Amino acid sequence: MVENKEMNQEHKFKLVGYKNFIRQNPKSDKFVVKKFHHIEFWCSDATNTSRRFSWGLGMPIIAKSDLSTANYIHASYILNSGDLNFIFTAPYSKKISEMNNQENTASIPTFNHEKARYFSNTHGFGVRAIGIEVEDAVEAFNVSVSNGGVGSGEPMEIGNGVFVSEIKMYGDVVLRFVSFKQQPIGSDYVLLPGFEKMDELSSFRGLDFGLKRLDHAVGNVWNLAESIAYVKSFTGFHEFAEFTAEDVGTAESGLNSAVLASNNEMVLLPMNEPVYGTKRKSQIQTYLEHNEGEGLQHLALVSGDIFMTLKEMRKRSCIGGFEFMPSPPPTYYKNLKSRVGDVLNDEQIKMCEELGILVDRDDQGVLLQIFTKPVGDRPTIFIEIIQRLGCMLKDEEGKTYQKGGCGGFGKGNFSALFKSIEEYEKTLETIKQPAVGVSAATS
């Protein structure tokens, strides 16, 4: 966790739990935040990793920045579906850029060879940057630093009136601000300057599993109070939800969790911490140990039709896609309609059971969700697929949109997820064989 010794008393944070938490939105952002812009993953092989995610999530590869575009520093590929954008980045040999006198060809100027290699060696595959679109990336950086944020990347224009800057978040994850002097339009727009459009024949064009946007990005930290207070101090984000071990834990382990949100509640940043003294090690502690520190635990991707999305994803689970956490027992679905009302019909409830979808509701709407198993070798980062039902509003122009965070985070779902991960982790534990004794022969 980034130290912030000058944190004011007003930023102290103390969990009150799900039952006692009162949701309110003070509109306290310190700069104008619009929405999530992109997620950047750091890995050791961007080509194969990006293709795996493209195939498994139905996200075409739309743009590239690599040797073929005269980038001698790193290979990066952009995947897109709706407003959801993933960037996969891996370093080239530093000697290649030095031999070719091409030290300034990176399309992502904050990229650093040493940091990227350290990141992969330490954490394995994971998220480096949570990109959010703001009104002014320069202002967002300056305001953040003046309020205790630790700078990671000075504001800079990367081309075509696009500005970026970075603030340390938790562990080796950064919050990346992106702003545009004017919104880019036209067929040549590929998310960020320095990238070129991919040829349709080599980009899995036509894949579309219905993913629309990033809903929330969840981090695991050692100390929740410190991390929440730190991020609140430089962003002004407000608390959207809270959960304690009493709310979502099991008889064997638990966690504490809190969610921070922007004014429009379209940028949601939950964070979890482990609890100690339980029968089993908290799954959050397991993550922190395998990740060798704090980091991003999972990304929640919004689907316009979760049934269609999951049918497509499950088709690919054993052929290069993603596997899912074990489904809850049949008893979970027995009285589902009484818990969520008439939002889902009998056929949809049956599909939820067949696909292993968790269903919960709060005072605003209904939340459907399911979780993959960890996507890499380590039991760390995974993906969540969700659909929110309800909370439809109209803007000043009369256009219909869904309120951010509709359906909350599902206390019942959270508890079911926790149990599911707990059971999954049990399958990873080494079966200890009794030592083979060698008895001495007597003469």
TrEMBL record:
Binding site for Fe cation: H216, H298, E384
Pathway: Amino-acid degradation; L-phenylalanine degradation; acetoacetate and fumarate from L-phenylalanine: step 3/6; Cofactor biosynthesis; prenylquinone biosynthesis
Keyword Repeat found: yes
Subcellular location: Cytoplasm
Biological processes per GO annotation: L-phenylalanine catabolic process; L-tyrosine catabolic process
Pfam families, alphabetized: Glyoxalase
Gene Ontology terms, MF aspect: 4-hydroxyphenylpyruvate dioxygenase activity; metal ion binding
Coiled-coil regions, chain positions: none
UniProt domain VOC: residue ranges: 35-194, 213-373
Entry keywords, A to Z: Cytoplasm, Dioxygenase, Iron, Metal-binding, Oxidoreductase, Phenylalanine catabolism, Repeat, Tyrosine catabolism
Cofactor(s) required for function per UniProt: Fe cation
Entry's cofactor comment: Binds 1 Fe cation per subunit.
GO cellular component terms given for this protein: cytoplasm
Family: Belongs to the 4HPPD family.
Protein name from the UniProt record: 4-hydroxyphenylpyruvate dioxygenase
